[in-house]
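are you around this afternoon, could really use another pair of eyes. what follows is a protein written twice so to speak, once as letters and once as structure tokens for the fold. i want to understand how the tokens follow from the sequence so walk me through it. anything you notice is useful, everything is just below.
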Amino acid sequence: KQWYQRRVAITAGIVKSTGHHYTWNKVCTTVHNIIVGKLWVDQSGEIIVKEHTTGATARVKFHPYSYFSRETPRRVTGGVFSPEGSPRYSLKGTWDSAMSCGEVTGAAEGDNWETADYQTMWVKNPTLEESEKIYHFTTLACSLNEPEEGVAPTDSRNRPDQRLMENQNYPDANVMKVRLEEGQRTRRRVRESKIAAEGPSAKYEPRWFTKKLDEITGEEIWRFTDEYWECKETQAWERCPTIYLQEEEEEKEEGET
């Protein structure tokens, strides 16, 4: 969704892990002053997290920023509830610095709960030195493009134009980006022609995920097949298409050396 001077993003998610089945929505993320003024982001709304195995839920409210309010900016409050709806833990903090949790120990009336001492659950990592020069990236964000041996040839870390740009070789990065995009468009035309000639059976299928209906929510989800890890262990990447022009780049590198 988009309005003048701001942009809003709303998403939802489902995850399964260790026998638990969680679903949750995402709050409204609003980017202010896209056109004029200092850019800043706010979160507002309520996240409801449900664990479908036990029926426990968590409700977390993100309070919107107001120029006229004396409340702490970016404030977050909420609680964790039993399957019967009784509050078990109280949550408070801010979404950009720290969150704390306190066990509910006494009678609860509305949002006024008697709790034990709050314990810190999460604290924002320190900002990197001179972070303004690297778009305020976190340590994790800075490491996402680090090369790793043995990954699939289609791994985004193997994308040559991205690597060239990271190495500050912008002219070659731009040339490579155009070549990669031209190859992508060519493969898409070939695929569309094949579908038109052979029917839906020729439709592209993802390598590592399958589309299924979630048995609890009834929603369509993409489920990981775990086959990637088997292929990585054996280095059997035959199913991966060539999309990054690796052979040509290796020849180019050999010529430069």
Remarks:
- The helical segments are 139-143, 160-166, 170-198, 227-234, 246-256.
- The radius of gyration is 24 Å.
- The chain is about 25% helix and 35% strand.
